[in-house]
Amino acid sequence: MLQSRRFAVPLILGVALTAGCEETGKNARNSGTCSDINGLQTCRYTSKTNSSGTMAVDINVNSSAGAFLLSTVGDDGTYLSVEEVTDPDGVTVLHWEDWYYGSNNLTAGILPIFNEMQLNWPVRADDTQLSAGTWSISVAAIDRDGYYQLNSVIDVITQVKQDGTFSDGIVNARIVYVDGLDTDTNVTQATEDAVEIWRDIWAAYGLGLSVDYDTNIYVSADLPAMTEGSADIDAISEDGTDADITVVIGDTVGGAANIYGESGGIPGTLVDGEHSAVAISWITNAGGDGTFSSDDIQVYGETLAHEVGHYMGLFHPVDYDNSYDPYAWDALNDTDECTRQSDCDDALGENNMYPFPVCPDFNSCLPQQTLSAGQSGVLHRHVGAL
Amino acid sequence: MVFVLALAATTAQAAEPSESQLALYKVLSGRHQEQSCTHIVELSPTPTTDLVWLAENAEQPAWVAIRAAECVLELYPEPAAPHITRWMQSDDTLGLALLTVSRLDGLPIAQARPFLEAGLAGPHADRVRPRAEKLEQPELRALVDIAPRP
Fold this sequence. Notes:
By secondary structure, chain A is α/β, with parallel strands linked by helices. Chain A contains 7 helices and 21 strands.
């Protein structure tokens, strides 16, 4: 049988899953082996793509469910992405082609980036919110040339949170120092102080922060690029729970000091995996002197909020090409659709997700602590906000 | 008094970036640096001088100094050698020193050796040493064994 190429074929829904089902807590029954933490149901099973190279994942939700997160892991060399999401009435509420070719970013779940893929639904207040019944997500497995991969084995993790109110919530973060950095008080004190900045930024939008500190002396302080991931990140994230976001503190990220921090996905997953973390370089956040001034800690806290913001589904409100011309925007209608950098600086310079600090004077930059209502809504809809 | 004022003026002037330094500063200040060092240095007629200046004078956002130093280590380790050696030896350049150690495997051994020797004898030796022990080049790791412990 000839393989189809994703960019040329219409969608064909995959086979239904036949795994066993479990009901946990107040959650509806779902496929796989399930557990429950504070109303967050996590279910795991393994399945395969069908003869079209797609796989349907069904998620059952009840009337009090607020959001679900689908996490998938395929074989190395396989690229996973979402084809479409349909609601219990069979209505398509997300189709990859509606976003793939546009200049607005809704979720990286539609982008075949690597062998892991996450989709949190709903993303925004404007999206179709959860209603009781069975939601179906069609997942495609493709190769690097865009051809569908048939009978491709995929690990599936579904998570459903019961919290259907999006005005308050607690995010559980687990900060992990590697390679003995937990004994460097220069790093640990600054990180704890920066966490308080991060906490203040989110508190203004009804989002609390519960932080645990941990250490892993076996992992090198030269952290991997989170786009590549690593077995070390998998091991670190495995030490956490299925309800927390892992933030790893090391010397460098991706072998390059130009990366001060990097998110393992937009959104990332709450379960363990090779990309399941936000990686942070303390050196790049401390600067040339290697110590943290109050200004450094302020920016470090903003950086933690920014990177974990990515992990919970936020894109930059605007992205620039190499000529510093805006070329892509987020999918939110309350962040400016600016088309010149000076206009973007004016409209978005104090936004926590803006990709450029605005520094009117050399060495003096504006705080970046604000979020729009739409951005706050994305954070609250991530299943990690409990 | 006049001398003090003159010195203050000189110091203040020294911390003011030139036009080309400002252009580099702007590019390096983005949260996610998308452009390579090779591309970035096209913005300056004197990239070595400007990048070293930013590495030693840029404070906010913190990553500008580190990124500038990384471009120095990638593109101009030889002409900037006296500066890099100073980063290994000065009390107030811990971040630049640790960055340099992390980049030593990418340098020819003849260039890397004096930098590491300076770091192992400098004020940050306690932090340089464990990182140097993990370098890939055995000639560099061997320096750790023969360097006197503080």
